Amino acid sequence: MERALQTPAAEPPGDPEPGPAGVSVSAARPAEPDPAAAPGAEPELTAHPAPEPQITGSPGPPSESAARAPRAPRRRWPRRALRTALTILLIAAAVLGAAELATPPAERAPALVTIIDGAHGTVPVQVEPSWRVSQAVVAAEDSGFYGNDGVDEVGLVRAFWGWMTGVDEGGSTITEQLAKVIYTGGRTGIADRVAQVALALKLDGHFTKTAVLSMYLSAVYFGNGYYGVLAASEGYFGRAPDQLTWAQASLLAGLPQAPSLLDPLRHLGAARSRQGYVLDRLVATGTLTRAEADAAAAAPLDLR
């Protein structure tokens, strides 16, 4: 009998064909559009929130606008001023320390005064603070004499500024002037000023105020060849220093500033003008009243 030809049975439609490695072929096919959907409608997309970026490592460079942002100015001048002031103080301390070692001892001062007076035919005198001439000199030249330690800080600043500018601002105490007369020969250079400060500190530490004032009034020049208050009071007025009137004492106290230019025997007008300044200082310090000062300015001098 003839064998009946067997044809393979047709597979039902819709069954997926097996793909390689067991992968369904239909899974790889795109989904067919839903015939029920409206034509032209786009398929709905499910939105998923994007993950927030994680910053790792160091941040990047600042933006251009941030880089251009103005910075607050730093106030550096107080710090610089403080450093400058400290530097000046250290230098000043070092200079004064060296000057103290280089200058002679204070014990020699009375002998130096005696040498000066002996060379000009006079002798030292022990003054009293109550003498009119003593009070006038202190009021005119160093009103803080009895309270300072031989130097005046404000006066030192004025003296330094005067040295820098070439304009003499004064500022020396009586003790510094004594050092200037007996130790540095009246010189006013910067090295001499430093030496005078160091010597004034020594003198003030070694002698009483009355002794310092006595040495100064015994050695300072009053013009017309008169060294010391004893020679000056006798030469100008024919009186001892403790017998001078307020008019005579105030005139005499103004002469050491410029003894040749203020010599009352040659430049009475200039000497009188300086006398007026001394009397004003006596009023300012409370030693005289205004009425007493005016009376002294009008009183006769009885110059010889």
State the major sheet. none
Low-confidence stretches: 1-13, 18-30
CATH fold node name of the domain at 105-298: Penicillin binding protein transpeptidase fold
Number of strands: 0
Approximate strand percentage: under 5%
Overall outline: globular
Q: What does the secondary structure layout of this molecule look like, with pairings?
A:
Layout: H1 25-28, H2 64-67, H3 77-102, H4 109-119, H5 132-141, H6 153-165, H7 174-182, H8 190-206, H9 209-219, H10 229-237, H11 246-253, H12 268-284, H13 290-298
Structure write-up:
This protein has helices at 25-28, 64-67, 77-102, 109-119, 132-141, 153-165, 174-182, 190-206, 209-219, 229-237, 246-253, 268-284, 290-298. With 304 residues, the chain is mainly alpha-helical. It has a domain at 105-298: Biosynthetic peptidoglycan transglycosylase-like (Penicillin binding protein transpeptidase fold). Helix 5 crosses helix 12 (268-284) and helix 7 (174-182) crosses helix 9.
